[in-house]
Amino acid sequence: MATNFGGEPLDATRDLVGPALRGMSFALLLGSAIVALVLWIVRLLVTSQSSTRLVDQGVAPALLLGGTLAAMGASALAAWVRLAPIGSYYRRGGLSMVCGFGTFVVAVLAAPLHHFLGSPGLLGLAVVSLVGLAVLGGRLR
Q: 126 near 114, Cβ under 8 Å?
């Protein structure tokens, strides 16, 4: 039987590119939705007049850090689960880490989005991501 350079058997009847792209897209949309909602909540806390005590106590920075890490973890975990058709743990793990890092990139890019479009921009990103999740989630079943 023919094998690839990693020693895994080649199977021409199975296409793994489509499931990999759909699984990674699902994970990135999930991470994007979570991180957009976290950033919106943090901005709400920071701009609220009654929450200055919460900001001074470090609640907003802790929520920002914890929420971003949670979004990255959720994205990586969703990718791991959705990439189950890929038999190689090495490939699944690598692609899952890419999704986690991609979520961090979305979090960094959400700052200029908020600067130019404000809070509606963050909510728009969350809504678009959730709609994409609903469409892609239904297709994955």
A: no
